[in-house]
Design brief:
Layout (H helix, E strand, L loop, with lengths): L6 H13 L5 H23 L4 H31 L3 H12 L2 H26 L4 H20 L2 H20 L6 E2 L2 E2 L7
Antiparallel strand pairs: 1-2
C-alpha cells in the first residue's frame, strides 16, 4: 500500500500543471478527479504510520476533503458537458456556486479538509520521519496559501512538496506499526 503514497499527490500535481495549458481544462479535471480518489487509500496507508487517534482524525479529514474535491470535479465536468458552449459555462458555474451550501461543501471548506488532514499526517510523522513530516506540513500550507491568493505556481510548489514527502515515506524502510501511541516492540515498564 505504501507504493501508492506518491500516486495521489502526483496526479493532483499533474492536474495543476495541466490547468496552465490552453485547452487542457477537461483533461486536467479528469486527472484531478483520479488524484482525489487515489487520496482515499493514501489516507488509509498514512493512518497506519501515525498514532491511532491522530491517524484516524487525519484519515477522516483527508477522506472527507478528497470526496468534496471529487464532487467538485464531477460537478465541473458535468457543467462542461451540459453547457452548450464556453459562453454558457460561466453563467451555469455562477448559478451553481451561488448556493452557499454547495459552494462551502465543494469549493471552500470541503477541499480544505484534505489539506488539513495531510498537515495532521505531517505532524504525526515528525517523530519517526521529520523531513517528510515538515515537507508535508509546508506543502499543505503552500497549497492553502495558493487557494487564497489564487496563484497556480504556488499550488504547484505545494503539491510538489507533498509529492516529495510522500515519496520519501513510501521509500523508507519497513514500517513499524503504531499501537496505542507507541511503536510495536517498544518496551513498557513492568
Amino acid at each position: 500500500m505504501r507504493i501508492l503514497l506518491p500516486a495521489g499527490p502526483a496526479l493532483l500535481l499533474a492536474g495543476v500543471l495541466l490547468m496552465a495549458l490552453p485547452d487542457a481544462w477537461t483533461v486536467s479535471h479528469v486527472v484531478f478527479l483520479a488524484g482525489t480518489l487515489v487520496m482515499l487509500p493514501v489516507a488509509a496507508a498514512l493512518a497506519g504510520l501515525t498514532a491511532p487517534v491522530l491517524g484516524r482524525v487525519a484519515q477522516l479529514l483527508t477522506a472527507l476533503g478528497a470526496l468534496a474535491l471529487a464532487g467538485q470535479f464531477l460537478l465541473d465536468l458535468a457543467v462542461d458537458q451540459l453547457a452548450a458552449d464556453a459562453a454558457a459555462r460561466g453563467p451555469l458555474f455562477d448559478q451553481l456556486q451561488s448556493s452557499p451550501a454547495l459552494f462551502l461543501t465543494l469549493y471552500a471548506v470541503g477541499p480544505s479538509l484534505l489539506f488539513a488532514g495531510l498537515a495532521l499526517f505531517g505532524v504525526g510523522l515528525l517523530g519517526r520521519a521529520p523531513v517528510p513530516g515538515w515537507l508535508l506540513i509546508a506543502g499543505t500550507l503552500l497549497t492553502g496559501l495558493s487557494r487564497i491568493i489564487e496563484q497556480w505556481p504556488v499550488q504547484a510548489a505545494g503539491g510538489a512538496l507533498i509529492l516529495v514527502a510522500l515519496t520519501m515515506v513510501s521509500r523508507s524502510g519497513p514500517s513499524r506499526p503504531v499501537a496505542r501511541g507507541r511503536t510495536v516492540g517498544s518496551r513498557t515498564p513492568a
